[in-house]
Amino acid sequence: SLEEALYRPNFHFTPKANWMNDPNGMFYLNGTYHLYFQYYPYGNVWGPMHWGHATSKDMITWEEQAIALYPDDSGLIFSGSAVVDKNNTSGFGKNGIMPVVAIFTYHNMDMEKDGKIDYQTQAIAYSLDEGMTWTKYDKNPVIPNPGIKDFRDPKVMWDEANNKWIMTLAAGNKVMFYSSFNLKEWTLESDFGESIGGHGGVWECPDLFSMKVENSDEIKWVLLVSINPGGPNGGSATQYFVGDFDGNRFVMDDDFSHQLEAKDSIWLDYGKDNYAGVTWSNIPETDGRTLFIGWMSNWDYARDVPTFKWRSAMTIPRDLQLKKINENYYLESLPVDELYNYAENTIQKDLVNSKELEDLINHSNINLANINIAFDLKDLKETNYDFLFFNKEGDMLSLGLNNMETEFFINRTKSGKVDFSEKFAPKISTVKTSEILRELSVQILLDKTSVEVFYNDGEVVMTELFFPNAPFDKFSLSSKDKTFKIENVKIQEFKFK
Ligand code: FRU
Question: Domains (ranges, CATH) in the chain?
Answer without folding.
Answer: 2-335 (2.115.10.20), 340-494 (2.60.120.560)
